[in-house]
Design brief:
The protein is mainly β and 113 residues long. The chain is built from no helices and eleven strands. It has strands at residues 2-6, 9-11, 17-24, 33-38, 45-50, 57-59, 67-72, 77-82, 91-97, 102-103, 107-111. Strand 7 (67-72) and strand 8 (77-82) form a beta hairpin. The chain is globular and about 40 Å long.
């Protein structure tokens, strides 16, 4: 199982960014996927989840209405569209396969002017 995140970078407050996570080594379409983040000095937290069947989504209260998780099973990729970003959302963002507990290397997002 391998997960490779990309799309991070420097974003101004209020700006947008789309993260991608490309998976390999398992049947991507059969598994729930999730995004997490870890800010400096803080524990890793769950941001969003998308199921394999039906693509049902769930979000942390702090990101509802601003972040959107989606998936493209044909590309083995899960996305995180982030809008109206705040400085406190500066973190390393990771995707995860909850069934396996496998983590990617993460992608850094810095929200700063």
């Amino acid at each position: 199982v391998q997960l490779v995140e990309s799309g991070g970078g420097l974003v101004q407050p209020g700006g947008s960014r789309r993260l991608s996570c490309t998976a390999s080594g398992f049947t991507f379409s059969s598994y729930t996927m999730s995004w997490h983040r870890q800010a400096p000095g803080k524990e890793r937290e769950l941001v969003a989840v998308i199921t394999s069947v039906g693509g049902r989504t769930n979000y942390a209260d702090s990101v509802k209405g601003r972040l959107t998780i989606s998936r493209d099973n044909a590309k083995n990729t899960v996305y995180l569209q982030m809008n109206s970003l705040k400085p406190e959302e500066t973190a390393v963002y990771y995707c995860n396969v909850p069934s396996f507990g496998t983590w990617g290397q993460g992608t850094q997002v810095a929200v700063s002017s």
